[in-house]
């Protein structure tokens, strides 16, 4: 198969074929495991399109080619305003399949969520319903077809929105049917096989030892994924990252929302939203909402039902006299530059690791209120971290001794054994265990400030390109651990951190 791409990302024998059909201005705009996406324009129709071509590594795999062709046939047969339409498709003389679809300028919902995280601006229920209702209607359309289609990969990255609902009239569409199934396509047959994205997968799709056959996705599975997206938009917290892998697969717990988890306008609706998600995220598919549209209507209704709001603890804390723990680190010392002690290539490597690890710590969790997961406890690695710093972390997920923050489990990032995230209205605190001092030091910035007290010495530095975000690095026997503080008062809060 002649799948080797040109500079535009198209196979050598496809570009001339498309030019003959009137397409031009080719340039690659995306790539994934299944294929490459190339922008083009058809001048005769004044139409911008996206051309999806099977990935080079998959072009010689008969199974992958069949799957790609199944996606093309599946989507070409669909007709819904919230599903990306296909205009054309074929196989090149060299045997490379491709199809031409509508080009959408809007970024993905994932991009909108990530931007909101950085701005600490949660979606309101009204905005969430506005954005997700077209997707809910598309899923109900798919489920009602004579041969129902199950998307199997409903996630923010596969939802395209030309605005984040802060402006009315946004266009929202569901894309990427690469692993969709209907009665004419092959279902999962191998025991233990899961297809989809782990962070948005319904619990019934995880196989168990007692199962007689591999679990099969249904429309209820797609609805569960849509409910997870709604939860992430309202809280700016990805539930999968707040849950250990074992809990996610076999003992998933329902989040309990409080007013601080939500946009200010939705705080009074926390009790009714908890009732909504208890149904939308029910472990039994038969106990969930009957349709996705019904689910969106119930979400909108939940926001109109106001419950009692807890009295704010923030005012009480600010009115109380501040106290400094005896083992905090209040004193400042001189900055300790290490530039002369380390080769430049090592410093560059550390900066790359620092950006990757600490951006991963804060990107999905920055200043969003922590979700309280009922029934969850620390796993073995998290317990080590919590026991090492008993003045920072509670004995189990929940309220922390320091600043009355909500603490929860989080999936470890690169190089970490464990990670715990604690949050309050105006502060996010992350603790990580890197296992060894060498692993931890790989993410310590080149220039740090030394802070000392009678009990111990630590180093600290503001995280590059993240104003108001500070790293704290213990020394001595605790040198395998690192902490990150983010918030308007993080620079001063780090001086009172009880790490010694």
TrEMBL record:
All copies of domain Protein kinase, residue ranges: 23-300
Alphabetized UniProt keyword annotations: ATP-binding, Kinase, Membrane, Nucleotide-binding, Serine/threonine-protein kinase, Transferase, Transmembrane, Transmembrane helix
Listed EC numbers: 2.7.11.1
Membrane-traversing stretches: 352-373
Disordered: region residues: 306-346
Ranges of compositional bias, category Low complexity: 306-331
Domain of life according to the entry: Bacteria
Binding site for ATP: 52
GO molecular-function terms, A-Z: ATP binding; protein serine/threonine kinase activity
InterPro entries reported in the protein's UniProt record: Kinase-like_dom_sf, Prot_kinase_dom, Protein_kinase_ATP_BS
Major enzyme class: transferase
Presence of the UniProt keyword Transmembrane helix in the record: yes
Protein name: non-specific serine/threonine protein kinase
